[in-house]
Amino acid sequence: MIRNFNEVLKQVKENDIKTVAVAVAQDEPVLEAIKAAHQNEIANAILVGNEEEIKNIAKKIDLKLDDIEIIHEADTRKAAIKAVECVSSGKADMVMKGLVDTATFLRAVLNKEIGLRTGKLMSHVAVFEIPKFDRLIFVTDAAFNMYPELKEKIDIVNNAVTAAHAVGIETPKVAPICAVEVVNPNMPATLDAAALSQMNARGQIKGCIIDGPLATDNALSEEAAKHKKISSPVAGKADILLMPNIEAGNVMYKTLTYTADCKNGGLLVGAAAPVIVTSRADTYETKLNSIALAALVAELMKK
């Protein structure tokens, strides 16, 4: 099982090298990550966007373009579509957002003709390496689905489980996070958590262990779970934190990012190929980690 991002990067190098298509690639932080990915044999790249601007940035950051394909397209919308088409046509294994707004990028991803639709729900999976933990922690969904109901949460769990399997966690432990660890009819998230747990116990959701509702403390801390007399295969040992809504997920994501000394990466799962949607505020290291995670998910999807 992979326990940190150094091991993620090491595992990627043991697989066949993947290719990432970058939509509107004339973005310095993104090209910094592409440079590192290329130099460290994490991924090859196809850069789609304004060729002159890409070359100017590449010169500035000393990115060698000899082995990197550039597809010139000055129009942002068309560049996003061409990058996605590189994946749907088999030229690339994953697609990454560059200097383009998220809505335009996702419209290309979901394009009916050349997009990456599967009929399944797409969801964001964030992965954190936190110093006090001996494992990676997955947080979902912090960026894409706003107020998922039970049906959507099933897909969100399955997407996160796919990402966890990609990093070698054979049976990830999923904690549906709520404000309390008991079922309360007045708190819909606890009802969803109980339903997900029962569906998992009956084999309707496979490849993981789900138990909840659990509060964040007893999902992550065995001591807290013991103190509250919670007996559970997930309590204190959770790999995946299923957040009840986007507010909770976003707060968790940004709190970990800005207050804890941790590393992270993330991607959208549920499309026909991994989709990397990083924020302008994300560090180059986060972007590189996201490319590496996407490469592992792409490897799993090819099997």
Automatic annotation (TrEMBL):
Keywords: Acyltransferase, Transferase. Residues 77-295 form the Phosphate acetyl/butaryl transferase domain. One of its GO terms (molecular function) is phosphate butyryltransferase activity. It is an enzyme of class 2 (transferase). It comes from the Bacteria. InterPro entries: P_Ac_Bu_trans, Phos_Acetyltrans/Butyryltrans, Phosphate_butyryltransferase, PTA_PTB. Gene3D superfamilies: Isopropylmalate Dehydrogenase (3.40.718.10). GO terms for biological process: butyrate metabolic process. Pfam families: PTA_PTB. Its EC number is 2.3.1.8. Belongs to the phosphate acetyltransferase and butyryltransferase family. This is Phosphate acetyltransferase.
